[in-house]
Amino acid sequence: MLDFLMAPKTRSRIQAAARRAYEKAQREIWTGIERFKADGFRLNIFRGRDLFRRIRCGPNSIHAFIRHPDLSITDLGVSHNLLTNIGRDWWAQQWGFIGGGVTTASPSTAISATSVTVTGTPLTASNLATPVLGVAGLRTYMPVTGLTTAPVYGNIVSNTTSVITVDKWWAVNDTTGTTPASGNGLIIAPGGAAACRFMALTTDVAAAAAADKTLASEITSGGAARSLATYSHTYNANTLTLQVIFAITSSFTAIHKAGLFTALSSAGADPMIYEGVLNQDATVGNLDTLTVTWTGTLSG
């Protein structure tokens, strides 16, 4: 009845809008992850409701593709990562490492948005050149105000004997937390490794190497800077995935490698845990998106 009473021009406009919306939906590109019980996963790429590409990703793989402004896709294929030597040390810490001096470091004596000064000089300073992790790659937890206010945490980038540098203060929902007050207590939990879920890119052409401690010439701008990855894992599966969709706002020629870190920002001071060369270099421009999916396999 409503269609019968509608003026022809109005009906025509509504039909045209509906047609445009349908056509746009048919052009939209999105991905779905299909996990296998044994190992790995399959990345399904859809255009609208139609599945037009499937990519099998095995354990410890890196898959990347570029979506261009005209909605075309450049699939860069699948490659494999390596665990750096300093990454092995970081993994070992998760089993109960207690950093030197952490039991006497509390309370704090000074606080900023990216640092906390502890009591005295009890810590072992981090030094990637040696390498000595100190408490880098761990997390420090601190209360904010009263007992009913949830505490915040900082991912430790580096430390001297008395000052801990963090990427920022985080709330539990991945937003920016309140900076604690000077004098508040702190804890660096035994085995308190920070989550290895920050992904970075570089155009550096050198091969990935286990001896690498940082990502050389890490990109820090143009939509390709280090970013928090989206974590996904299915209960009882032996794989997990980390994915970042980099929304490019500049131009980069031949993005060659990616790395996984435990902090959002570092200025080259925090340890790189994993490193991998993309199967194919990514050359991207303004309005492109570069999707990188990193798969880890859990075994024991």
Explain what the structure shows.
With 300 residues, the protein is mostly beta strands. It has 2 domains: 60-86 and 196-297, no CATH class; 88-193, no CATH class. 11% of the residues lie in helices and 40% in strands. It contains 3 helices and 18 strands. A 9-stranded antiparallel beta sheet has the order 13-12-16-17-5-4-18-15-14. A 6-stranded antiparallel beta sheet has the order 6-7-10-9-8-11. Strand 2 (41-47) and strand 3 form a beta hairpin.
Distance between the termini: 66 Å
Kindly state the percentage of residues in helix. Answer: 10-25%
The spatial strand order of the largest sheet comes to 13-12-16-17-5-4-18-15-14
Query: Strand-residue fraction?
Result: 35-45%
Overall 3D form: globular
Number of helices: 3
Runs in which pLDDT lies below 50 for 5 or more consecutive residues are none
**Helix vs. strand class:** mainly beta
Order of helices and strands: HHEEEEEHEEEEEEEEEEEEE
Q: Give a count of the beta strands, DSSP E runs of length 2 or more.
A: 18
**Whole-number mean pLDDT:** 85
Major beta sheet summary: 9 strands, antiparallel
Number of domains: 2
Radius of gyration: 23 Å
Layout of secondary structure:
Elements: H1 2-5, H2 8-27, E1 29-35, E2 41-47, E3 50-57, E4 61-67, E5 73-83, H3 85-93, E6 110-112, E7 115-117, E8 138-142, E9 152-159, E10 163-166, E11 187-193, E12 198-202, E13 227-228, E14 230-232, E15 239-247, E16 252-261, E17 272-284, E18 289-297
Antiparallel strand pairs: 1-2, 2-3, 4-5, 4-18, 5-17, 6-7, 7-10, 8-9, 8-11, 9-10, 12-13, 12-16, 14-15, 15-18, 16-17
